[in-house]
UniProtKB/TrEMBL annotation:
It comes from Immersiella caudata. Transmembrane segments: none annotated. Residues 204-563 form the Protein kinase domain. SMART domains: S_TKc (SM00220). This is Heterokaryon incompatibility protein-domain-containing protein. Residues 372-388 have a biased composition (Basic and acidic residues). PANTHER family: DOMAIN PROTEIN, PUTATIVE-RELATED, TOL. One of its GO terms (molecular function) is protein kinase activity. InterPro entries: HET (IPR010730), Kinase-like_dom_sf (IPR011009), Prot_kinase_dom (IPR000719). Residues 349-394 are annotated as: Disordered.
């Protein structure tokens, strides 16, 4: 024992120290964790003391085991020590380096150390620029060899530790965030992305003080397990008026104050993180989703509606009302109330010293975005009489006599989050108010957000009537009360009628209706009134007649509806001139709502379960019938007042803006909102060595007559201005141009129009499409470059087609893409694991010849060549070619100029005179030659047409034809092969401003808006052809020749002939040069929505031969199958997308789509054209997809239940269920495989007539009644938390409806789809039978 103790504490030899050092290095490496956001390694904080004990330090420093050095390292410099251990330092070097740290006072708290930029020392010996004295350690020569490595390694051992007592963290870019993995949840908004990540348990601590006074000690306890947190990352957007740091600072200020409320129904933010140039806010993860998600998972069965559930709803609504009351009644005469107006006031660390006696419970998250707003005149003025505003915190634009108050401003079911917790004490959990970052930052984003939403429940649906006021008007805190009324109303509908009832309510809104009306209120502009909508009044009456709500003794649900009717959905707001009695008839405030909900809760406790729920069952309770809504036509006259019926007009004028015509469009398509970033680098490069004259940039097009106000207007510095337009201003050129381009001009009557400039585009009101463009010439001027930096250099006039400047621009587009867009290069074209790596040439190409040295064409003839047997002077390997996308047009009006077996040899040996080509094909030759490309592909010439042709073979190769083309040219304006696409275009109207006698001065232009890629291309006639969707998606880049102008699309966006640039996130899906790379980078939910949009869009396209419908998208489908790493075909994917993609349905909303018609495929071409009944490709007509909640369905894909895919069956036979093999993958057009779905069929437990209320038949209403037998195949059923105790009859089922012809045995065909309760399906053991769906 004596020997053992002596050896333990005696100095070790240097060799022992080196051995210990190597062992320590290995253990350090094993103990590191991987960061998920940047894929860097870090060392968890809790393992520092565990791994680096005093004895371990002494053992490593065996050559100098003095106690003072060991003590210094163990108490102050463990992390520095570990960072040096990770390097190549020997024990001797380690001792010297740590001694140096001890001498200079360099400790762990100083990490991470930034690179120093000392350029010398003054007479006093201090460095210039100065730094902390402890950093002089790095001037020591001992650090020269290790400093570079140390700067990198130090960050591994200095990841931040977050505390519940500190909110803001300013971290360097090198700092490693301790997030170990990503969860499945992610939401992408315009300004931010919210991701679910896992925070390492050592890096979140709870702090509190024990003891009092000087004896108080700070205690820190780390989390016991990893934390699921929501990480909100702010986006860097190139938009005027938006700065990511300012936006983050403002939000951090507000959230820091909200933390102090600590209300159980308000989300508690954990940390605000500035990480280099990135900005984050961290919250704990809401494990139950949003209130919207709760509603989606609800079914209609009475077993879901119990007294306990009604009581839960009442209690949670009471909590939400209490949270609003806490927000609305915060003391606002302090920094709290003025938080968002003073971004520099917040300290880096929270100064709150409130003691915490025990570690608080974990609070769960997601994202509040509460803003400070100026008070309206609707609230009491008690606080105004107690003014104590610190004037040093009042911004210049804030009236010191006015008040500011907290309000939410964007309250809706999506922003109320559900927290279940580990115990799951109630089905509803705890509801908390949050905001997922969707709050608008400025005018443009407001219009964009609501233009591109596709949901039936938009933000505007929950807006109060006063939202129709001037955009700059203050909004009342009672704005939130209206939103609260909408939420309670919809919650009652869900309780009584389930999600089908809510869908029926949403269905009252007309699809695509552009109106100032919403589901909840209508505006009568002529009579200056607003009122609760006819729809809501109808539903309220119907609900109050429901047996549950019509009892004389009353009920909780009826009291909730009457609360909404009588106190929440009230248009009138209190005003100063009103009497107290009149004010009581106005909309309630949050405190009153809280009191009334508390009264309902007390009644429930006193009266018992009968008050909460009377009927023990609500089977087959009908949804209220739809109302006959009266839609008020939208008008845009200015200067109207908004008031409740019967009330006096407010003193303040509320100008109705056209913005809301767009903001209230409920079902606006996802892909119609475009951004117009200024990009002058391309324009300046284009004009650098290219001469131009006044014909290109005219100094004036005629005498510019402007009114006095317009003449004084500086359009290049003004961000917005108003114009009074009408008869009196028609002599002003600018007014005239605005009236001509404004979509809601009102003839001779006068109205106020608000013009807003966003960079180089001018918008009217809130419309998302610009009406005018602001351009400038490339000349420099006396104006500052800053003033012109956000104005696009552009052509006020379009160039003449065939003009050298025009062709030069087309070539420059391609050169710029070749140089600056590596993602668009041929080598970046999508390659599947089963396709060849080299570029593939089409079977045939057209040789258009070369240019002679003098610039003239070699020949007026072109020649068809076969690439496999070509014996020309130059090899065709990797030859560049242009591909033409064009309409054929009717044969009676167009010469299709087809290649047939009869003329093939002649076209190869003798060629074709260019003059003999129809105009569209001639123009394609002209463009190909102008771009300096020798080869051209045109389907009519390069594919042998006719019954003995090779179309069926070539059609399956379209993927490679368009993928490997140097560029695709799209004849968007052509109506057929004989119409051409290089005809003259109408030039835009424009006004030349800032003209000067100086020829070098910059000229500014206001022009009519031409840059409309959506209308000209995406919604244009060419894109209505079925084949073109695939051609656009597979092309690396495309030049579109439209009637308005020419566009260029590649992976970097869209360029216009005017020199403008356009971008759009949804359009980038099809514009992706390596389709579908954009989809692969998306979440699972985004992938689903993208392929659904793709197939829905495709189903609406037109075909000359409808039986081409399956094959014209085969190339796209093949890409998706490979990209998703799965099997698939006929519009259906195997694996994680199988169930959803099977549940397509006939588009019930489409006009003339009462029933889809099965396609009559050509007899004898079954090898190419056979399509099974379970595929939408077998039918003619528009499709949609059944609304299936994300992560809310348990899919039934086993042999014992549900349906098996044909791909999975084949993989089973090969013993490779989960392995994708090249010969096991097939797709549409490769139909030599089985196309049978093996399934378990079940009979209906209710009459077919009743089931048909839920069935969407492919062939239209009643399509199943002529079948010999109709049954269902269960594809999926509603998920439930407890599978063992769940009653399958109470769960929603997602089914295929199938039918069998008389005498067909087990062969069934698909008839439609349905969502129905399990009680409607015979699910007794042994009741199902195996069938084949063909």
């Amino acid at each position: 024992m004596r020997f053992f103790l002596a050896s333990l504490f005696s100095p070790r030899s240097g060799n022992d120290g080196e051995t210990e050092l190597k062992t320590l290095r290995k253990e350090v490496q094993k103990s590191m964790e991987q960061n998920c956001t940047e894929h860097k390694r870090f060392f968890p904080a809790g393992r520092v003391e565990q791994l680096l004990t005093i004895n371990r330090i002494r053992a490593v420093l065996s050559s100098d085991p003095s106690d003072d050095l060991v003590t210094f390292v163990s108490q102050y410099a463990r992390r520095i020590f570990l960072a040096l251990v990770c390097g190549d330092a020997s024990v001797k070097d380690l001792v010297c380096l740590m001694r140096s740290c001890q001498e200079h006072g360099m400790i762990d708290d100083k990490l991470p150390v930034q690179p120093m930029s000392c350029i010398g020392r003054g007479d006093t010996g201090k460095c210039f620029p100065e730094h902390e004295p402890c950093l002089n350690v790095f001037h020591d020569s001992k650090w020269e060899d290790v400093m570079f490595r140390f700067r990198d390694d130090q960050c591994i051992f200095a990841p931040p530790v977050f505390s519940d007592q500190k909110f803001r963290y300013d971290l360097t870019a090198e700092c490693i965030l301790p997030f170990t993995s990503r969860g499945s949840g992610e939401r992408d908004g315009h300004f931010s992305t919210v991701s679910e990540v896992i925070l390492h348990q050592d890096h979140f601590v709870t702090e509190w003080k024990e003891g009092r006074g000087d004896n108080a000690q700070l205690r820190r306890v780390a989390s016991q397990e990893p934390l699921r947190v929501a990480l909100k990352k702010m986006k860097h957007l190139n938009e005027p008026g938006y700065n990511v740091r300012s936006a983050w600072e403002h939000e951090v200020l507000a959230l820091n104050e909200i933390r102090n409320l600590r209300h159980p129904h308000l989300i508690f933010p954990l940390a605000a993180i500035k990480h280099g140039l990135e900005h984050y806010i961290m919250f704990e993860w809401a494990d139950g989703g949003s209130l919207r998600d709760v509603w989606k998972l609800e079914d209609e069965d009475a077993k879901c509606l119990t007294p306990e559930r009604v009581m839960c709803v009442v209690e949670q609504l009471l909590g939400i009302a209490g949270a609003l009351a806490a927000l609305h009644n915060t003391n606002t005469k302090t920094r709290t109330g003025l938080a968002t107006r003073a971004p520099s006031l917040l300290p880096v660390a929270s100064t709150s010293q409130a003691p915490v006696r025990e570690p608080p419970r974990q609070q769960m998250l997601q994202i509040p975005r509460i803003r400070v707003q100026r008070e309206s005149s609707d609230d009491d003025d008690e606080s105004r009489r107690n003014s104590d505003i610190d004037q040093s915190y009042v911004s210049e634009d804030l009236d010191p006599e006015s008040e500011v108050h907290w309000r939410h401003g964007d309250l809706k079911p999506d922003n109320i989050l559900r927290f279940i917790g580990p115990l799951g004490r109630s089905w509803l959990g705890t509801l908390k108010i949050a905001d997922l970052g969707l709050a608008k930052q400025h005018f443009l984003q407001t219009s964009r957000r609501n233009e591109q939403t596709q949901q039936r429940y938009t933000t505007s649906q929950y807006e109060a009537p006063e939202a129709m006021a001037n955009l700059h008007s203050p909004r009342s805190r009672r704005y939130d009360i209206w939103s609260m009324g909408c939420i309670i109303f919809e919650f009652v509908i869900v309780l009584l009628y389930g999600t089908d009832g809510l869908d029926a309510f949403y269905g009252e809104r007309k699809p695509g209706q552009v109106s100032t009306d919403t589901l909840y209120f209508t505006l009568d502009i002529e009579n200056d009134t607003a009122d609760v909508s006819h729809i809501v009044k109808h539903w309220m009456k119907a609900i109050l007649r429901d047996p549950e709500c019509s009892r004389p003794e009353g009920s909780a649900i009826s009291d909730l509806i009457m609360l909404v009717r009588d106190r929440l959905l009230i248009v009138g707001l209190p005003e100063e001139h009103m009497t107290e009695k009149e004010k009581k008839d106005c909309r309630a405030d949050a405190i009153e709502v809280q009191k009334l909900l508390e009264r309902i809760r007390r009644s429930a406790l006193d009266k018992g379960e009968k008050y909460l729920l009377a009927s023990p069952t609500r089977y087959h309770t009908p949804v209220p019938p739809q109302s006959i809504a009266q839609w008020v036509a939208a008008k845009t006259e200015g200067g109207r007042y908004l008031r409740a019926p019967g009330s006096q007009a407010p003193r303040r004028e509320l100008i109705l803006h056209a913005a809301f015509l767009v903001r209230l469009t409920v079902w606006a398509p996802l892909d119609k909102t475009w951004n117009y970033p200024v990009d002058n680098d391309f324009a300046e490069e284009f004009f650098r060595d290219r001469p131009y004259n006044t014909s290109v940039f005219p100094r004036e097009n005629r005498a510019v007559a402007l009114c006095k106000n317009c003449a004084r207007l500086n359009t290049w510095t003004s961000s917005s201005w108003t114009m009074r337009v009408g008869q009196a201003t028609l002599n002003c050129r600018l007014h005239d141009l605005v009236l001509r381009e404004c979509p809601m001009r009102s003839g001779t009557s006068e109205s106020t129009v608000e013009i807003r400039r966003v960079e180089s585009k001018l918008f009217v009101g809130g419309l998302s499409r610009p009406i005018l463009s602001l351009l400038r010439s490339p000349r420099r001027s006396s104006m500052s470059e800053t003033a012109l930096s956000d104005i696009q250099i552009g052509f006020p006039n379009l160039q003449q087609v065939r003009d050298p400047m025009y062709f030069a621009l087309l070539s420059r587009w391609l050169q710029d893409c070749n140089t600056n867009h590596p993602q668009c290069g041929r080598r970046k074209v999508w390659q599947s694991p089963r396709s060849p790596a080299q570029a593939l040439l089409p079977t045939r190409l057209i040789d258009v010849g070369q240019l002679s040295p003098n610039g003239e064409k070699e020949s007026e003839a072109v020649r068809l060549v076969e690439t496999a047997t070509f014996n020309g002077p130059e090899p065709l390997t990797n030859a560049s070619y242009i591909a033409l996308s064009h309409p054929w047009g009717m044969g009676s009006h167009n010469d299709h100029f087809c290649t047939t077996r009869q003329n093939l040899v002649s076209r190869i040996e003798h060629g074709m005179a260019v003059a003999s080509l129809p105009d569209t094909l001639q123009d394609a030759v002209t463009i190909t030659r102008a771009l300096g490309v020798r080869y051209l592909w045109i389907d009519t010439i390069c594919i042998i047409q006719g019954p003995d042709g090779d179309f069926n073979t070539e059609a399956r190769l379209m993927e490679t034809v368009f993928s490997f083309a140097y560029c695709v040219i799209a004849a968007s304006r052509a109506s057929g092969t004989s119409s051409g696409f290089l005809s003259p275009r109408r030039s835009p109207e424009f006004i030349a401003l800032n003209t000067s006698i100086n020829p070098r001065s910059t000229v500014l232009y206001i022009t009519s808006h031409l840059d409309d890629f959506q209308s000209d291309v995406i919604d244009g006639p060419l894109n209505k052809r079925g084949w073109v969707l695939q051609e656009r998606a597979l092309a690396r880049r495309t030049i579109y020749f439209t009637a308005s102008q020419t566009y260029f699309e590649c992976g970097a966006g869209v360029r216009c002939e005017t020199l403008a640039k356009m971008t759009n996130n949804q359009a980038s899906f099809l514009g992706d040069p390596a389709f579908p790379t954009v989809a692969l980078k998306s979440s699972k939910g985004a992938k689903i929505r993208l392929y659904e949009i793709l197939y829905k869009t495709y189903s609406a396209l037109q075909f000359t031969k409808i039986w081409d419908r399956p094959i014209a998208i085969a190339g796209l489908e093949q890409r998706l199958v490979w990209a998703f790493n799965t099997h698939g075909g006929y519009g259906v994917f195997d694996g994680q997308f199988f169930g959803r993609s099977l549940l397509w349905k006939r588009d019930e909303k489409a006009e003339k789509n009462d029933g889809m018609k099965m396609i009559d495929f050509p007899v004898g071409d079954r090898r190419y054209y056979y399509v099974p009944s379970w595929s939408w490709m077998a039918y003619e007509g528009l499709i949609d997809f059944l609304d299936v909640p994300f992560d809310g369905v348990e899919w039934q894909h086993s042999d014992e239940e549900g349906v098996l895919s044909p791909w999975r069956q084949r993989a089973d036979l090969n013993g490779e269920v989960d392995t994708i093999r090249g010969d096991a993958v097939w797709h549409t057009g490769k139909a030599n495989e089985k196309t049978v779905l093996r399934a378990v069929g079940r009979q209906l437990a209710v009459p077919l007539e009743e089931a048909e209320t839920r069935i969407v038949y492919d062939g239209g209403k009643g399509a199943g009644r002529g079948m010999g037998e109709v049954g269902v195949v269960v594809v999926g059923r509603q998920k439930t938390a407890n599978k063992q105790s769940a009653d399958v009859r109470a769960l929603q089922h997602y089914v295929l409806v199938v039918g069998r012809e008389e005498g067909d045995g087990t062969a069934y065909r698909r008839l439609g789809v349905a969502r129905m309760p399990g009680s409607w399906i015979d699910q007794e053991t042994g009741s199902g039978k195996r069938i084949s769906v063909v």
